[in-house]
Design brief:
This protein is 53% helix and 16% strand. The chain has 335 residues and is α+β, with helices and mostly antiparallel strands. It folds into three domains: 6-90, no CATH class; 108-166, Roll (SH3 type barrels), CATH 2.30.30.60; 174-270, Alpha-Beta Plaits.
């Protein structure tokens, strides 16, 4: 048997115990994940619970490994104090992100699966670690609210400096609007009826659940009474009658519903002879009379005046050139 110094033996034992602690941490994380997966059926909620359990297990495992190497007692307390002071000084951003993680979890700012906007980034939350939040981005160069394909990582400390918009946490629906202009000669009353009919047809299946969710939302927050049924609003402008259809929609289906509504409305309006969609065009109804007088054929007062001014200018330049002798001539006369 090798005759090793006691210090080496202690290091080897601590290393073996650290490996055992790391292995037990990974095994515990896997076992707990499988148990929670069998228990929870709501995928976004399950991912949120998985995230919390994972972070807690790894935090416990890290603490156990530190205890193995530093031991119990005053030495551990002093070492942890020095280590904490060093980390706080050298890793202020990291400490801020960890504090942001605590705020996200305890304040229930958002969870995995929620659609959020943090600062200038909008997307669906994929993961929440102790330092960062991972988001599948929507918007940017893609119109409406559909995935761009980019995965964005946001430091958790951003929740302290930037506003956090949650699209789906307390109420799973949004109000959306479609605005269509009609000419003043159109049958705008009939146009409004058609818009309401199509809005009701596309939102009737979500209205009961949206109403129940909104009622629960009102029980927790002082929200004013709002209806989930489609509403129509009319505004008179200088050029047309502007009609806006307001309706509820699932945030993930916003663009699809908007596209279908526009197609169905266009098809229906084409069959209505007294409904015309307005556009920003100009109609010339007449020209002011032109007085030619004695001007040559094809000229107007403006072109004739410009021609006279040009001839006068040329003639003036010619006369001034003839009246003023050149510098060479002046020199000869003086001589």
């Amino acid at each position: 048997m090798l005759n090793l110094p006691p210090a080496y033996v202690t290091v080897i034992i601590k290393g073996i115990l650290s490996l055992v602690a790391l292995a037990l941490t990974l095994i515990a994380n896997r076992v707990l994940r499988n148990l929670l997966r069998a228990r929870f059926r709501d995928t976004p909620h399950a991912h949120t619970v998985f995230m919390l359990v994972r972070n807690a297990v790894f935090l416990i495992g890290t603490s156990v490994i530190l205890l193995i190497w530093l031991g119990f007692g005053s030495n551990f307390t002093v070492a942890m104090g020095i280590l904490g002071a060093g980390i706080a000084f050298a890793s202020q951003e990291t400490i801020g992100s960890f504090a942001g993680y605590i705020s996200i979890v305890t304040g229930n700012l958002y969870r995995i699966g929620d659609r959020v906007r943090i600062g200038q980034v909008t997307g669906d939350v994929l993961d929440i670690s102790m330092l960062r939040t991972t988001v599948m981005e929507i918007g940017e160069w893609v119109k409406a609210e559909q995935y761009t394909g980019r995965v964005v990582t946001i430091a958790n400390r951003s929740v302290f400096s930037d506003p956090v918009f949650n699209y789906t946490q307390n109420w799973r629906y949004l109000w959306d609007e479609i605005t269509i202009p009609f000419t003043y000669d159109s049958d705008w009353r009939r146009a409004g009826e058609i818009m309401l009919e199509h809005g009701e047809a596309y939102t009737s299946h979500v209205q009961p659940e949206a109403e129940a969710s909104l009622k629960e939302f009102r029980s927790r927050y002082p929200v004013r009474e709002s209806s989930v049924a489609p509403r129509l609003y009319t505004v008179m402008t200088d050029n047309w009658i502007e009609m806006t259809l307001r309706y509820v929609v699932d945030p993930g289906q916003r663009r699809q519903v908007t596209g279908r509504l526009h197609r169905e409305l266009l098809n229906h309006f084409e069959m209505e002879p007294h409904i015309e969609i307005a556009s920003a065009t100009f109609e010339i109804v007449g020209f002011p009379p032109l007085q030619h007088g004695a001007l040559p054929h094809g000229e107007t007062h403006v072109t004739a005046r410009r021609a006279r001014d040009a001839r006068t200018l040329v003639a003036g330049d010619s006369e001034s050139t003839e009246r003023e002798p050149s510098s060479d001539a002046k020199t000869e006369e003086q001589a």
